[in-house]
Amino acid sequence: MSKLTLDRILQSQGFGSRKWCRELITDGEVTVAGAKVTDYRQLFETDGLEFTVYDEPWLYREHIYIALNKPSGYECSRKPSHHPGVLTLLPEQFTWRDVQPVGRLDHDTTGLLLMSDDGAFIHAQTSPRRHIPKVYVATTDTPVTGALIEQLLSGVQLHDEPAPIAASSCRQLGDREIEIVLEQGKYHQVKRMLAAAGNHCAALRRTAIGKLTLGMLDLDAGEWRYLEQAELDLLVPE
Ligand code: URA
Question: What is the pLDDT of residues 161-199, one digit of tens each?
Fold first, then answer.
């Protein structure tokens, strides 16, 4: 439990500089628990604090953990160069709070992307030592064969990698559709593995991280939502 002044609270939640947050408050644009507050020095208990800014409701969150159903055509980089960044799909407060993608998906890859402003969480999720399985569904240029699956499971040699890399599991979903589960997060890994096995990835979607599936989140492309603790608990190694 901690008490903070209202200007600090707004600043911590991504509403801009302290000076700007003070102006918002003195201008009467902020309410707390239904009542307008114009003294920015007023103290509030942050835990569970509900407030509005410009009539929009917010709940105080020490950190943000969200899932986005990433559409194609967005870059995960913080300084995107050829396509808009995924942060443009979120409220601008999240950029001020330094919310970042947890790992990266290519601009043309769709599906489950976690985002957070909690550095320890991002580090734990992306650490190669944790072996968190990530599930991808790839559409291939040529039909999926038993030989392709065998190669992906036994390991393919990627350029610049010291040893062959294998999928932890693989199954055919359709004539040109394959589910691939990986425990590493190497650059363009699925696309490069499919190419090394003699096929080509025409489209790629991430459908799960750990036991958290895109299906259970019920998000259309471009939609996001906060993750509950029970959902975060699913992001663990098998
Ligand atoms: N593998 C890829 O090739 N691309 C991604 O975006 C994710 C995994």
Answer: 999 999 999 999 999 999 999 998 899 999 999 999 999
> Are residue 220 and residue 192 in the same domain, yes or no?
no
Within this chain, do residues 138 and 191 fall inside the same structural domain, yes or no? Answer: yes
Ligand 1 neighbourhood includes 109 CB (under 6 angstroms): yes
Tell me how many domains the chain contains. Answer: 3
Among 113, 110, 115, 105, CA closest to 80 = 105
Q: Is the pTM of this model over 0.85?
A: yes
CA of 2 to the centre of ligand 1 (A): 41
Q: How many whole angstroms from 203 Cα to the centroid of ligand 1?
A: 10
Active-site residue, 106 included:
yes
Whether ligand 1 lies within 6 angstroms of the CB of 110 is answered as no
Together in a domain, 137 and 196:
yes
